[in-house]
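WARN no homologs supplied; continuing
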Amino acid sequence: MRLEHAAVYVSDLEKTREFFETYFAGKASDKYHNQKTGFMSYFLSFSAGARLEIMTKPDRYTEDSDNNRLGFVHLAFSVDSKEKVDALTDRLRSNGYETVSGPRTTGDGYYESCIKGPDGILIELTV
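OK structure emitted
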């Protein structure tokens, strides 16, 4: 069994698509738009692993700034080396994205950093 995809509602679909294409080499599907409900989405594919569905619908978005909320908490991307974790963290930080933690080695031995992406989506970068 494998995870096929995860999905997250966002307020700005195009900004979020561009973020994952720019920083994580995501490849977006054609946009799906349900004219009746206003629902729109893209599926983003990466070089390996599960796809990410980013979705928006006019009446669904509410901001929740509590990073410890139940449900979807973060996405983790393996970038293959400590040097790449450091480089991508620096790149994201220099482009105005907030660093939540790291880069650091966690108590359980992971080397990681965490940044806040569009709509406060937490993105963990790890080896």
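The chain has two domains: 1-59, 72-127.
OK
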